[in-house]
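Propose amino acids for all 244 sites.
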């Protein structure tokens, strides 16, 4: 079986060298090359490769952010000059982690692992949120793919987040953007001084809060500055009182 490969690297010499080495493998076909993360997301959607050879540090989107934006990521072999991302690479079920400069033998080992994994029918699970800040710090930006468009949002632009099925809907001004991330996971990564879980299905940007109304016994509604209204549970109201 011929495996379709996509190369993603912001350095043209690195892309060319890897393409030449992959061309020597009889069962690998390089179907495309990308210079940055935005191109990579679009190319993966369009070309549906079996494997992506993915650099980590790139302009605009890094390698982990590329994976976060994919509904069904392909097999991934990371190629990078930095060893500090190795643990994260295997947390997102990477096939291998190649440190530049790597030789033909090391690439051959990665290809052998790739063939074994695909032969077993293994596919990587959707990765967790890509961290764009130091460990333990809140997310500095939230990524959303809307068709072929990619939104890179500063968290303070989000009015509230609503749980919807297996993911969430982010209200940003007059737009509502769907993201395939559970509400609890997103809530754990956003700044708790700004975002508060006011209901099991809602996460509120406290800067948007204009007031509260009693809706029923032990139940309230949050009024936002733009006129939006979202439910507040009894537990959410208790958390609001503690924080405000």
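Proposal:
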């Amino acid at each position: 079986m011929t495996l379709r490969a996509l190369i993603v690297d912001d350095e043209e010499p690195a892309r060319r060298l890897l393409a030449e080495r992959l061309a020597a493998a009889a069962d690998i076909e390089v179907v495309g090359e990308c210079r940055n993360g935005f191109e990579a997301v679009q190319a993966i959607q369009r070309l549906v490769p079996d494997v992506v050879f993915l650099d980590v540090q790139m302009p605009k989107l890094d390698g982990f952010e590329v994976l976060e934006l994919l509904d069904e990521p392909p097999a991934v072999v990371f190629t990078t000059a930095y060893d500090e991302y190795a643990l994260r690479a295997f947390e997102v079920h990477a096939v291998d982690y190649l440190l530049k400069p790597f030789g033909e033998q090391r690439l051959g080992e990665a290809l052998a692992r790739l063939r074994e994994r695909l032969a077993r029918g293994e596919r990587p699970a959707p990765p967790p949120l890509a961290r764009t800040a130091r460990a333990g710090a809140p997310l500095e930006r939230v990524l959303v793919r809307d068709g072929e468009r990619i939104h890179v949002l500063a968290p303070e632009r989000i009015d509230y987040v609503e749980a919807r099925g297996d993911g969430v809907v982010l209200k940003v001004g007059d737009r509502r953007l769907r993201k395939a991330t559970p509400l609890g996971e997103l809530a754990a990564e956003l700044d708790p001084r700004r975002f508060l879980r006011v209901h099991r299905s809602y996460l509120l940007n406290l800067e948007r809060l204009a007031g509260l109304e009693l809706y029923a016994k032990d139940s309230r509604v949050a009024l936002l500055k733009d006129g939006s209204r979202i439910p507040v549970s009894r537990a959410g109201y208790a958390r609001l009182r503690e924080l405000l």
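The chain has a mean pLDDT of 91. The first strand starts at residue 3 and ends at 8.
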